[in-house]
Specification:
By secondary structure, the protein is α+β, with helices and mostly antiparallel strands. Helices cover 20% and strands 45% of the residues.
Length: 225
C-alpha cells in the first residue's frame, strides 16, 4: 500500500523565519549533524534530515538470563515547505511518531501548537480488526471530503472491505477528511456506528471510550484554534 506523506498546517511564518526555525530543528533533536537545506526559494523550501536513533533493549535467552543490546536505526526524513500556503510536508515519518511530533512543536515555537488528527484509515480499521476478530466493517462514510472539482461531498462505501474501495477510488482523500463514521458490528452482539473524532478517540454505541495506536506512519496534525 502506498502511504501519503504527513502534512502540517503551520502558523503564519514568513519564509526567512520558517527557514531559521528549520535550521534550528536538528538542535531541538540534540543532533547537530545530518540536517541539510537542499532548495530555498521564496515559495518553496526542501530539506533532508538523517539522524541516528539509539535504544538500549533487553532480551531474555531460553535460560531466563537478560541480555542488553544497543539498537541503532538511521532515519532519513525529507521536508517540503510551502510558506505561502503554510504547509509543511514530511516524508518517511519515524515509528516513534508522538515523540517526533513533540520535537517538531518545540522546534517551531509555542505558536506552532498542534493536535493529533486522523490516522490513516487503513491503519485504523486494520487495528480494529486485529483488536477484535469479531468486528466486521460493513460501511465507511466520509463527511465533507474535498475531492477534485467538488467543493464538498459525502462519500460512502458498503460491502466487503469498504475502506479498500475508498482507497482505490480516492487514493488522496486521507488528508481531506473532516469526519469519518464507520458502520460495523462490535463485540457483545452490538451493532452500530463508530465515529472517529479529530483527537483520535473512538465512541461506540455502548459509550465505551477507546484509544488506538498508530500502526505505521501516517498522522495529520492541524493547527489549534
Amino acid at each position: 500500500m502506498k502511504y501519503t506523506p504527513v502534512k502540517f498546517l503551520v502558523s503564519d511564518l514568513d519564509t526567512s523565519s520558517l527557514s531559521k526555525r528549520l535550521r534550528k530543528f536538528p538542535y531541538t533533536l540534540k543532533k547537530q549533524k545530518g540536517f541539510r537545506l537542499e532548495n530555498v526559494t521564496k515559495d518553496f523550501i526542501s530539506a533532508r534530515f538523517i539522524y541516528k536513533l539509539e535504544e538500549l533493549k533487553k532480551i531474555q535467552d531460553p535460560m531466563g538470563h537478560e541480555t542488553e543490546f544497543l539498537s541503532i536505526i538511521f532515519q532519513n526524513i525529507e521536508f517540503e515547505i510551502y510558506p505561502l500556503h503554510r504547509i509543511l510536508i514530511i516524508h518517511n515519518l519515524p515509528r516513534s511518531s508522538r515523540y517526533f511530533f513533540s520535537l517538531i512543536e518545540q522546534a517551531f515555537g509555542p505558536q506552532f501548537s498542534m493536535k493529533l488528527g486522523f490516522f490513516n484509515m487503513h491503519n485504523i480499521l486494520q487495528h480494529l480488526k486485529e483488536t477484535d476478530t469479531n468486528a466486521k466493517v460493513t460501511q465507511v462514510s466520509l463527511k465533507s471530503v474535498r475531492l477534485n472539482k467538488l467543493n464538498e461531498a459525502d462519500v460512502t462505501a458498503r460491502g466487503d472491505n469498504p475502506d479498500q474501495q475508498l482507497m482505490e477510488l480516492y487514493p488522496d482523500y486521507m488528508d481531506k477528511i473532516h469526519d469519518m463514521t464507520v458502520q460495523c458490528s462490535l463485540p457483545d452482539n452490538i451493532s452500530g456506528k463508530i465515529k472517529f473524532t479529530r483527537m483520535g478517540s473512538v465512541t461506540t454505541p455502548n459509550s465505551k471510550h477507546l484509544q488506538w495506536k498508530p500502526l505505521i506512519t501516517n498522522l495529520i496534525l492541524s493547527q489549534l484554534v
